[in-house]
Amino acid sequence: MTDAPRRTALDATHRALGATMTDFAGWDMPLRYGSERDEHVAVRTRAGLFDLSHMGEITVTGPRAADLLDFALVGNIGGVAVGRARYTMICDAGGGILDDLIVYRLGETEYMVVANASNAQVVLDALTERASGFDAEVRDDRDAYALLAVQGPESPGILKGLTDADLDGLKYYAGLPGTVAGVPALIARTGYTGEDGFELFVRPADAPALWEALTEAGKGAGLVPCGLSCRDTLRLEAGMPLYGHELTTDTTPFDAGLGRVVKFEKTTNGGDFVGRAALEAARDRAAARPPRKLVGLIAEGRRVPRAGYPVVGPDGAVVGEVTSGAPSPTVGKPVAMAYVDAAYAEPGTSGVAVDIRGTHEPYEVVALPFYKRQK
C-alpha cells in the first residue's frame, strides 16, 4: 500500500481554481489550471504565480555551519555574504550529483539549503551524516515553510505594492526578511523560469492569504496561476537543468557543463570536500577528452522529442540521448536538451536527428539557452 501524496497549504486553493493535479515527488501538485501554453506565455510577457511548497528546506546552524557546508557541498559556501544565495550541488564520493541546490545565508551562522522535492530526504540524510565532527546542527524544516513564486517581467511591480522591502536594492540571488501583504517572509530574487522574479518563503498557515493578496495585486498586470507543466517548459527554454534528466548520480558537474560550480580553491577544511578527488579526475578527463556535451536541439518539423529518445548522426549511429524535450512557445518549435558526443556538439552541426519511434527527425544543434531575457 503506497502512501497518499502530501498536500501543500494551498491545496484547497488549487482545487477551487480547477487545477489539474498530479503526484510529483510524493506531493499532490497543480500541473496546470487551464492552458499550459497560456501560463507559459503569461510568465514570459506578464507574470505567473506558482506554489512550490514541495521544495525541501533544510536549516544548518552553528559556529561551524559554513565549514560543514564547505565540506558537504562542492561550492564555496563560507564565501557567501549574509543576505545572498548561491547555486551549488551536493555530490557523492564518486563525484556523481545527488542534487542541485540553492543555499541562502540568513545570518553569520545560519543557512537555508533548498533541495529538490524528489531529493530532499537524500540531501537531509547526507548533510546529517557529513555533519559528524562539526559544531553545527542540521534541521529538517520542510514543514516550516510554504514557498510561493511570482515570476515574470511584471513581478517587481506586483510585489512592490505589497511590501516595504527594498526590492530595487535586492539583487539576483539575494534574499532578505520582510513582510508581504502583512505576512512575514524571506523574499528571495531567485527562480527557475529564466525571468526576473521572486520566491517567498512563508509559514504554511500564511500561504492562502498571501496567494489571495498576490492574485488581487496582480489582476491589472495580467498575473495568472501557473502549474508545474509550464514551469518545466520555461526552465527548458532557459537551459536550466532538471534533476533526474540533465543531472543524475551518473553525471558529474563537469559532464553537465557546470564545472564552474565546483570550487577547488576553497581553503576551509584543508581544501577537502566530499567527492574532491573524483571531481578533480572528472575535470581532467573533460579537459583531455570531452565526454558527451549538453546541447540544445531545435526541431525542423513538429514532432516532439522526449527524455530517453536516441540522438543519431548522419549515418544513423546513436551519438547521444535526449534528456528533456517539449514544444517551445517562445521558439515556436519543439526543442530539446541532449547529451551528444563532442564531435556533434558544435552549434550548427548538420545531419543530427532524433529517433522518434523509429523515424529520424532532423534537428539543429544550438547553444543553450534557447531563451535569454533582455535585462
Provide structural commentary.
This protein is an alpha+beta fold. It is 20% helix and 31% strand. It is built from 8 helices and 20 strands. The strands form 4 sheets. It has a 6-stranded mixed β-sheet, sandwiched between helices. Strands 15-18-17-16-19-20 form a 6-stranded antiparallel barrel. The chain has a 5-stranded antiparallel β-sheet with strand order 6-7-8-5-9, with helices on one face. Strand 6 and strand 7 (97-107) form a beta hairpin. Helix 2 packs across helix 7 (228-237). The longest helix is centred in the C-terminal third of the chain and has 13 residues, at 276-288. It starts with 5 loop residues before the first strand and ends in a 9-residue tail after the last strand. The model has no long low-confidence stretch (mean pLDDT 97).
N to C succession of SSEs: EHEEHEEHEEEHEEHEEEHEHHEEEEEE
- Poorly predicted spans: none
Q: How much beta, percentage-wise?
A: 25-35%
Strand order of the largest sheet: 11-12-13-10-4-14
| CA-based gyration radius | 21 Å
What class, by secondary structure content?
alpha+beta
Major β-sheet, in short?
6 strands, mixed
Would you count the extended β strands for me? 20
Mean pLDDT: 97
Shape: globular
Number of helices: 8
Give the fraction of residues assigned to helices. 10-25%
The protein's oligomeric status is single chain
Euclidean distance between termini CA atoms? 50 Å
